[in-house]
Amino acid sequence: MASNQDKPRNSPNKDVHAGNLEDEEQNSSNVNRTLQLVSAEKPFSTSSISKNHELMHCFRKTFKCDLCQKQMFYKCNLKVHLALHCGIKLFECHICHKGFSSAASLKNHEMIHSKKKPFQCQICQKEFTKSSTLKQHEIVHSDKKQFQCQICHKEFAYSSNLKHHEIVHSGKMPFNCKICHKGFTHACFLKQHEMIHSNKKTFQCQICRKKFFMSSKLKRHEITHSDKKPFKCEICQKKFSQFSYLKQHEVLHLDKKPFQCYICHKEFNRSSTLKIHEMIHTSSSTFKDHEFNHSFRGQAQMGIQKK
């Protein structure tokens, strides 16, 4: 008897009970080689492949899931399907040992370890491991943004992005840094922040030698050294090297000022401008000019006074 080590790495690693399924062969009426309904002319190299193809033309599917009533041609497919209901991960990655419910999901995952990103956006040249992820990304470059925040009216291409954004308005910061105790709205922001404490900037620009914590930040930076400006304003035709720069610019063409000071209610079209303004209301932002023995609210104001 073959041991578990003899199994191929993409084979199921657990045995799933298929309920009261009978182990008998498919009904002869379903596998009848003299099917009058089948007239496929596609050639086959072996009789087994031919038999499997004939089953696809049958109207009856022999194996049925007792939970959702879904029907399937093969018993092996039913076993994989039942694993979805049971939460069993039949397929395991041989590198990180993460489990998956299907062989297709495992193959998609394995591309992460290979670092191959064969699918590239034709607009911003960003690369992806899956074509489905590329399609989702391409919506960012389109005008299809049907999900709008009811508070600041910012629009998003995906409902998931809107939900993440809404946490900002709630004031909740459930993810805290264990070192400096700074709070964050999302786990991904916390992970990015934690890299600051490690002081490990392993990604370096080959042109200006500037270092970054993440490869994605380095890629965005490298565009600034090139003549590529793939993001264009549809109103004034001005081009930008970064998508975020374009978004900031587009607000200037609108009358919308979604960022409001909670103290004096003054409105701004950029969050960065609002943050600078809020320093006026805080005593911690007072800067002392020792030359004139005078205090100013904000460094910018001090510079204007000196002029």
Automatic annotation (TrEMBL):
Annotated GO MF terms: DNA binding; zinc ion binding
Span of domain C2H2-type: 63-90, 91-118, 119-146, 147-174, 175-202, 203-230, 231-258, 259-286
Naturally occurring in which organism (per UniProt): Biomphalaria glabrata (Bloodfluke planorb)
InterPro entries with a match to the protein in the record: Zinc_finger, Znf_C2H2_sf, Znf_C2H2_type
One annotated Gene Ontology cellular component of this protein: nucleus
Positions of region (Disordered): 1-31
GO BP term, pick one: regulation of transcription by RNA polymerase II
Subcellular location as annotated: Nucleus
Keyword terms of this UniProt record: DNA-binding, Metal-binding, Nucleus, Repeat, Transcription, Transcription regulation, Zinc, Zinc-finger
Annotated protein name in UniProt: C2H2-type domain-containing protein
Bias (Basic and acidic residues) ranges: 1-17
SMART domains documented for this protein: ZnF_C2H2
